[in-house]
Design brief:
The chain has a single domain, classed as Rossmann fold (3-Layer(aba) Sandwich). It has helices at about 1-25, 30-45, 95, 125-140, 155-165, 190-195, 195-200, 205-225, 250-255, 275-280, 280-300, and strands at about 50-55, 60-65, 75, 100-105, 145-150, 170-175, 235-240, 265-270. It contains eleven helices and eight strands. A hairpin with a 2-residue loop joins strand 1 (about 50-55) and strand 2. It is α/β, with parallel strands linked by helices.
């Protein structure tokens, strides 16, 4: 009887862990079901949508692009797990396309972005190196007009790496619900449980890779932390103050570390982690604002 109770308790604990992992992987069922519906609508309404691929050494970056080449570029970087489809609605936003050429990527190691022999896809420097040729291509195509990176969740943690390593290719940053503070980047207890062999097997490949990225996050953020004041890109940092996945205090860290003359921070009271999917009108306002500031800075 004791063994049965113990087994039952273990199973209950494991299932609870799986549920937490599902929630913690930049997702909630309701929001993602709605996003899947939007993606189907986008694909149905735009059957000629073009998938493009760019080779960076032994790696391949997959991305979708829409809009006029000569305009500033908005490059959207998803979190973990994920792919371009989570942000498909922005590819066909009339408001955004009036200002930008919109690009949504599959982050290296996800979707159709394939890694070569080096499987260290959790390394921010490597990911930045793979994405940089796309930014260079966009700059060449738009006459050196602005390139703005919009990152959500782990994508918002990665985007500053590009701004630091490739400052001439990054004019603006929109950082949504990203971890930037090394002290707030440690894995949680359920991330450790997900590494246990049985749990590691049952959660599936996407969550396994996402878990690996979470374990690498602290080291990546630590490497960047001392360099954050060097960022020259115009930046808007947005954080939901009821976010249960990324600690809300990350926005305070960003306010302390980033150049205050170039950075605005926005705190969304009673908002969780997925506001880039649920508040598209606000995203468009922030994307418009950062571009206006970049253009004003160039005039001055």
């Amino acid at each position: 009887m004791a063994n049965k109770k113990s087994t039952s308790a273990c199973l209950m604990a494991f299932m609870s862990t799986v549920m937490i992992l599902l929630v913690s992987s930049c997702s909630s069922r309701e929001v993602f079901l709605q996003q899947e519906k939007i993606t189907r609508q986008v694909l149905r309404d735009n059957p000629t949508i073009q998938h493009r691929y760019l080779t960076a050494g032994e790696h391949t970056l997959h991305y979708i692009v829409n809009g006029e080449r000569h305009k500033p570029a908005l490059v959207i970087i998803h979190g973990t797990p994920g792919d371009w489809r989570q942000y498909s609605r922005y590819l066909f936003s009339r408001e955004l396309l009036s200002l930008y050429q919109v690009v949504v990527i599959d982050r290296p190691g996800w979707g159709e972005s394939l890694l070569g022999g080096d499987k260290s896809y959790a390394n921010f420097s490597l990911q930045a190196k793979i994405i940089a040729p796309l930014l260079q291509q966009l700059k060449a195509g738009n006459g050196n007009a602005a390139v703005v990176l919009m990152g959500h969740s782990l994508g918002a943690s990665l985007a500053p790496q590009l701004a630091l390593d490739y400052p001439r290719l990054t004019d603006g940053l929109l950082l949504f619900a990203g971890t930037l503070d090394p002290a707030l980047s440690q894995p949680r207890w359920f991330n450790y449980i997900a590494r246990v062999p049985f749990a590691h097997w049952i959660i599936g490949d996407d969550l396994r890779r996402a878990n690996q990225e979470i374990f690498a996050l602290e080291e990546n953020v630590m490497r960047m932390s001392k360099r954050l004041p060097e960022i020259k890109a115009m930046t808007i940092v947005v954080q939901g103050m009821s976010d249960e996945l990324v600690h809300p205090n990350n926005v305070d860290y960003a306010a302390r570390q980033l150049n205050p003359l170039l950075t605005s921070t926005i705190r969304l009271e009673n908002e969780g982690h997925l506001f880039p999917m649920t508040r598209p009108k606000d995203v468009i306002v922030w994307a418009t604002t950062v571009l206006t500031r970049i253009q004003q800075e160039k005039i001055n």
